[in-house]
Amino acid sequence: MTRITAIEITHHRLPLDPPFKASWDGRARGHFDATIVRVRDDEGREGIGSGDLMKGFEGHEDLFIGEDPRHLERHYEVLSHINFHYGRCWPLDLALWDLSGKITGEPVWRMLGGRSDRVRLYASSGVLREPSAMADQAEHYIDEGFPAMKVRFSSSAGGRTSWRDDVKAVEAIRARVGDRMELMVDCNQGWRMPWDTTLPWTFKDALAVAKELERLGVYWMEEPLFRSDRKGMQALKEATSVRIAGGEMTRELYEFRDIIEERAFDVIQPDVALVGGITGCRRLVYQAREAGVMFTPHSWTNGIGVLANAHLTAGAGDAPFLEYPYDNPEWSETRRDYPMASSLRHSQGWLELGDAPGLGVVLDEERLCATRIG
Ligand SMILES: [Mg+2]
Prior knowledge:
With 374 residues, this protein is of the alpha/beta class. The chain has two domains: 4-105 and 366-373, Enolase-like, N-terminal domain (Enolase-like, domain 1, 2-Layer Sandwich); 111-352, Enolase-like C-terminal domain (TIM Barrel, Alpha-Beta Barrel). 35% of the residues lie in helices and 19% in strands. It has twelve helices and 13 strands. Strands 4, 5, 6, 7, 8, 9, 10, 11 and 12 form a nine-stranded mixed β-sheet that branches. The chain has a four-stranded antiparallel β-sheet with strand order 3-2-1-13. Helix 9 links the parallel strand 9 (267-268) and strand 10. Helix 1 (72-85) runs antiparallel to helix 2, helix 4 packs across helix 5 (163-177) and helix 9 crosses helix 10. It starts with a strand and ends with a strand. The protein binds magnesium ion.
């Protein structure tokens, strides 16, 4: 039997010059942090995960050492208890899937059911640009082969002063691209950075925005209300033909169970690197499908998180497209994937997962040395 012999966690910081002004963050970001989790077995193999900071994991290594890495459901139980008491340590679940794939010689998408070895992507923008510049960016995405893009509304942080300005950006894009691409809008009302005390929209605000998005043929409206307002989400869903999406930071799988049962959202977006790992989110794929709810993960971490979400979506899911954080030049594939030896590259809006065992992550050890902190 193969046994886990070590778990190593390192933290890294890439300076961002020029800084990245994310629409959902009032403070420009001067650096991009990544936590890398490695789990090793007694035959010298190493599984890799990334995502959250692994706060609260220290001192729990012994719960995994000596265990078979392939006992993924057992490890999921332990991680869910750590999640209950401390932080979200799901990157270890990703690393265990990667290691299990390396032991069995199979890519994770195939271990998860093997529906497909690739996923269609939507380009997920992060910067608030002037309407004409947003339309230019949409054209670039079309030229690169993306079937869809996500546009941000300013929430509290950006340069735009009201949602009416945000609607103008969507109008400019739609006028330029016509029906050549699907558009999604992320309202980001479900969460805030710790320093941001702006109140989320009321139901009436959200409804007024939804009517505008309906007019513009928007595919989904993401996080239109505060995350706890499931009744509001449901009422909004009934009041508009635009799909309502959310749940990227919903922490407990039983909350998702209720969301699915109540049909509070049309689209759920758990991120395997932040919530439940691959093992937990796999349950949600099946629950959602049976309820007619779309499952398509949030993936705004680094390339390792994108890959992990892509393996689940390809192997078990059936979403029409998966989030691909990508907004040149501010959020390039090179910046996003700096822990990796080579950045992920989409191919005409597809991410091909191939036959490499596990998640197929190769780390850039030199860069990880140079960016190490703590
Ligand atoms: Mg979002």
